[in-house]
Design brief:
Elements lengths: L3 E12 L2 E13 L4 E5 L6 H8 L7 E6 L2 E2 L5 H11 E4 L11 H5 L1 H5 L4 H14 L15 H14 L4 E4 L8 H18 L3 E5 L10 E6 L2 E7 L1
Parallel strand pairs: 3-8, 3-9, 6-7, 7-8
Antiparallel strand pairs: 1-2, 1-4, 4-5, 9-10
The protein binds adenosine-5'-diphosphate (2 copies).
Length: 227
């Protein structure tokens, strides 16, 4: 059965008495090993969906399952632990810690998990190397380009050996060339290490490089194409 399953997801945001429906009854299955893009215009629900799939937020109703574990009803603590162990998340704005080197950033999830220093540095360096970043391991984020910073963020997700990596518009702050290069790195990791990726984008050029495009509009899936 599917690695990640969403069932009848509804998300309603309430701010100052105003209710905004962001997802309206969405069903999605992601199989292990897939390389999937979530496409759709701004406001269609991409960020909301990825946040729910990654357990960063909870649905108003519906279910999210990672394998045999239902995420949306887990306690805050168990969800935090599960995220640390099993889900890699890559943010649009990298979210690297500015005072840490690329290596320390890539090792950060492992540090939170209590992995011993030598082991976490070994795994972080291996992850950086698989993204072509081994030579820049000692640099801090402000000494790296946007594309390099995002590769460190992918390495941080990868170093934790999660079951799935979710990325919310990972190329949104990158120029075209670095954006395509990032997706090509993710694609290679997907093929060589069988890492399951789901990422959102509104850049049509990236969609030529994926197995599957799920299109959102107004909080619903309007197309689901496999290539
Ligand atoms: P996308 O990522 O496709 O741009 P979002 O998931 O960010 O879409 O947003 C979907 C809808 O939910 C939009 O109408 C957006 O304005 C609204 N929304 C998103 N986050 C919040 C929030 N924290 N509070 C209120 N409304 C929100
Ligand atoms: P994206 O770049 O994916 O479209 P947005 O720019 O829509 O993301 O949203 C950026 C952040 O602002 C997200 O964390 C989202 O939850 C929040 N947000 C989006 N729309 C609203 C809103 N109407 N009210 C409050 N927060 C919002």
């Amino acid at each position: 059965s599917a690695l990640l399953r969403a069932r009848q997801l509804h998300k309603m945001y309430r701010t100052d008495g105003v209710a905004t429906p962001a997802l309206r009854g969405l069903d999605l299955d992601v199989e292990a090993g897939e390389f999937t893009a979530i496409a759709g215009p701004s406001g269609s629900g991409k960020t909301t969906l990825l946040n729910l799939l990654g357990g960063l937020d909870r649905p108003t109703s519906g279910e999210v399952w990672l394998g045999a574990t239902r995420l949306d009803t887990l306690s805050r603590d168990r969800l935090a632990r599960l995220r640390l162990q099993e889900i890699g998340f890559v943010f649009q704005s990298y979210n690297l810690l500015p005072v840490l080197s690329a290596l320390e950033n890539a090792a950060f999830v492992l540090e939170l998990r209590g992995v011993a220093r030598r082991e976490r540095e070994r795994r972080a360096l291996e992850a950086l190397a698989s993204l072509g970043m081994a030579e820049l391991a000692d640099r801090r984020p402000n000494q790296l380009s946007g594309g390099q910073q995002q590769r460190v963020a992918v390495a941080r997700a990868l170093a934790g050996r999660p079951r799935i990596i979710l990325a919310d518009e990972p190329t949104a702050n990158l120029d075209t060339e670095s954006g395509l290069a990032l997706i090509d790195h993710m694609r290679r990791l997907n093929r060589e290490q069988v890492i399951t990726f789901v990422f959102s984008t509104h850049d049509p050029r990236l969609l030529e490089r994926v197995d599957r495009v799920v299109r959102l509009q107004d909080g619903r899936i309007v197309a689901d194409e496999r290539r």
